[in-house]
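Shift notes (night). Ran Large ribosomal subunit assembly factor BipA while the centrifuge was going.
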Amino acid sequence: MIGNFRNIAIIAHIDHGKTTLIDKLLQQSGMLDDRNNVRERVMDSNDLEKERGITIFAKNASIKWHNYIINIIDTPGHSDFGGEVERAMSMVDSVLLLVDATDGPMPQTRFVTQKAFSYGLKPIVVINKIDRYGMRPNWVVDQIFDLFVNLGATDEQLNFPIIYTSALNGIAGLEYENMADDMTPLFESIIKNTKTPSISGSFQMQISQLEYNNYVGITGIGRIKRGSAKPNQNVTIVDREGKVRNGKIGQILSYIGLQRIESKLAEAGDIIAITGLDKLNISDTICDPLYVEALPPLMVDQPTISMLFSVNTSPFCGKEGRYITSRQILERLKKELIHNVALRVEETEDPDTFSVLGRGELHLSVLIESMRREGFEIAVSRQRAIFRTFNGIKQEPFKSVILDIEEQHQGQVMQAMNIRQGELSDMLSDKKGRIRLNYIIPSRGLIGFHTNFMTITSGSGLLYSTFSHYDDVRPGKISQRQNGVLISNGQGKALAYALYNLQNRSRLLIDHGSEVYEGQIIGIHTRSNDLTVNCLTGKKLTNMRASGTDEAITLIPAIKMSLEQALEFINDDELVEVTPKSIRLRKRYLTENERKCANRS
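Came back to this:
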């Protein structure tokens, strides 16, 4: 049975079709209950994944095809969730590298391929979306080969198999001009080109993923490197520091399709979930007590940005959330560290403030949104790039950016990137009105840029970025907001009469009847300075009959910012107040006197 296991991960740039491809593999192998009536992207089971249409967490499924068991791992395509990709690499013997038949390799394609090569894996290249208008598979294959050469691939890795697919239509083929009626060519390629696991030696596995529920406690997920495991088996656990302790396996759960079933025996090569072992951590090695041998700890790239998470100190604190204290916030962040391997949490001099370090804005905003839905109230600062000192020289992170835009927007976009100290490295035109610009830019130069980019391109532009390298710090301030803000000078209900008189000099962020407090940001000023205003004043009433000359009060609809937009918008002296029901912008210091003192100091 060992030789019939195949462990494989699907890696790709965001939106290149990984989860859709797994849908078709599950359907055509009969692993789903109803093959004709199934929702799309069944692997994206988390609420945030369903809403955003992206994969955030790496997840396992098991496919039975003929006499083979294919354990397949769906990984995120966004660079902010690279930690999930790195964990998945430790459980597989090969990867399906999915590339769009039109776009070709993108920034995240390079990142995930580099990780696969670092683990010595040989990719199976899948050219997806072969049904797409404008597809150019031959050009894409050439680009992939060039990418592999640049990443230092071995001769064996350069001799990669190629499969053409249309995941949407559920078809695959060895030639894009001669496609089969189903995914059989892809299944056959996985069986043929994926190594079988080694079986020699006593039991050994490494924890690559953790789950927790109140009924069974911690569940550890990983691949059995060698040997076999049974329920109630005595084992030894070795953590990443080398500390050893003993334990006993409770249940062993194997994967069948998307379901987990209890198993009496698991053998080398299988990906399983085990219960009964307390205080498990990612990278822990579980092995036979008679043959204690630790596997190398999983290495994850370091964070590149940080944010400050603080206790909500606004006058509305506690009105909408259940968890508001620093102790509750710290406990939640420590709980996140158990399974979110790319995250770091540091305590600061202020006991009510914690520094949270992550791989990108989306990485941290998903954490904030999860906490918000759980009932937390927090105040979040502007993101900052994480600097480092190398050989006595201060360095900052740089990102590789691809901007896919219409040619008419090229001038404005290039001007905006130059202001943010971006360096143009390549420029390609598709001869059909669109152009692709490749930039290297300091990470802090991208902070707050996305909204401006979408405005410049009228929503038609595409922006992709991934971490590139550390280099010497560029002099000067960049990525500062051009507009000031309107700040409320009191607490109460905002009234239409006052807002009407303010909208001539700003774009409002609140509606009539909104509850506001002193120090809350209520609008975006048309000029560069901040303005403290009164939005609570109503129209004076008299006992005189109206003459009909009063103006009709008509308010322009307020701007409603998403969490990501709010995090992009704020400056260093501002915070985003996040509660289960509201997202508010505020000044760090609420009263005008406090702000003046802070500016003087």
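The chain is about 25% helix and 30% strand. The longest strand covers residues 393-406.
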